[in-house]
Write a structure and sequence with these properties.
This protein has 336 residues and is mostly helical. It folds into 2 domains: 212 residues, HUPs (Rossmann fold, 3-Layer(aba) Sandwich); 95 residues, Tyrosyl-Transfer RNA Synthetase. The protein is 53% helix and 7% strand. It binds tryptophan. The site of tryptophan has 12 residues, from strand 1 and helix 7.
Length: 336
């Protein structure tokens, strides 16, 4: 069976965008792949994290995985730092990847901003660690969003250069898994910005831990325009001319697992107040079970820690023999 690896950073609140854009697909992929889902705490510390918050966020992401329906007996759920093979392979990849390749990474440029000199070395080498995450399991497929495609290309380049340099076929060339059902969810305050945990306004996003009242309030206050719901006709506008209106349609379609066209056929031409009521109802019913389970798990950190520990054990059992193979190929004398 083909193997999936994907990672989510434990930095702050998980929101509807994370759920509809990634985690819900992780759940679905379990039927067709062996899946490894990692809370990437090593990646998180490429920018400073308050230790207590890092620990809380790590448990929160693991809880969200479980609450959303990832079966921790079938799939593997663990946090990255607890399987040392990731960091060990990342070092080797630091020596395979070229400065020129990393210099092209757009995410580093965005995250480092103007003050490049002050960015951590870890932030720069981030993509090499991501390549190690994937290749230490010889994963064949990685579900990723648009923003991670360049990193996945780099992973392929690293695998290829390693295989060439050492005249081996050890690493597979991973394929991105473009998820047909993955939704691109934008901010409720600005339809041109992605829904994000770093947006200063909590009204820009629906968090997975929001209560039904929170959700209702946020949807009621979500930005729209004075026109009725787009009806598919030219007069109804386009996602470019009415990004907020189309974002709410996208959210409804994703939550209901319907095509946009179906949503537009049902609600096109109605007032936004009516559509927002229906959307609230749908969001609340869809998120209620996840929300409830997350609250239950938040009250049971030991249970979450056991899931992570058991997952780390199973992950290490796959990664260690592959790392040993890499070490032999590189020429490291192994202790017995
Ligand atoms: N860089 C990814 C993100 O920020 C997280 C990540 C780390 C990842 N390692 C990975 C994703 C390996 C896929 C595969 O979203």
């Amino acid at each position: 069976m083909n193997r999936i690896f994907s990672g989510v950073q434990p930095t702050g609140n998980l929101h509807l965008g994370n759920y509809l854009g990634a985690i819900r697909n992780f759940v679905r992929l379990q039927d067709r792949y062996d899946c490894i889902y990692c809370v990437v705490d090593l990646h998180a510390i490429t920018v400073f994290q308050e230790p207590a918050e890092l620990a809380a966020s790590t448990r929160e992401v693991a809880a969200a995985f479980v609450a959303a329906g990832i079966d921790h007996r079938r799939s593997i759920i663990f946090n990255q730092s607890q399987v040392p093979a990731h960091a060990e392979l990342a070092w080797i990849f630091n020596c395979v990847a070229r400065l020129g390749w990393l210099n092209r990474m757009t995410q580093f440029k965005e995250k480092a901003g103007k003050n490049r000199e002050n960015a951590s070395v870890g932030l720069y080498a981030y993509p090499n660690l991501m390549a190690a995450d994937i290749l230490v399991y010889k994963a064949t497929h990685v579900p990723v969003g648009e923003d991670q495609k360049q990193h996945l290309e780099l992973t392929r380049d690293i695998a290829q250069k390693f295989n060439n340099d050492f005249k081996t076929e050890l690493f597979p060339l991973v394929e991105p898994l473009i998820m047909g059902t993955a939704a691109r969810i934008m901010s409720l305050r600005d339809g041109r910005q992605k829904m994000s945990k770093s947006d200063p306004s909590d009204y820009s996003r629906i968090n997975l831990t929001d209560t039904p009242d929170d959700i209702a309030q946020k949807i009621r206050r979500a930005k729209t325009d004075p026109e009725p719901v787009p009806d598919g006709s030219p007069a109804g506008g386009t996602p470019e001319s009415r990004p907020e209106a189309f974002n709410l349609i996208e959210i409804y379609a994703a939550l209901a697992d319907l095509d946009h066209a179906r949503v537009i056929a049902t609600f096109g031409g109605s007032q936004f107040s009516t559509f927002k009521e229906a959307l609230t109802e749908l969001a609340v019913t869809t998120l209620r079970p996840i929300n409830g389970e997350m609250r239950r798990l938040r009250a049971a950190p030991d249970h979450v820690d056991r899931i992570l520990a058991e997952g780390a054990g199973r992950a290490a059992a796959i990664a260690e023999p592959i790392l040993a193979e890499v070490q032999r190929v590189v020429g490291f004398v192994r202790r017995r």
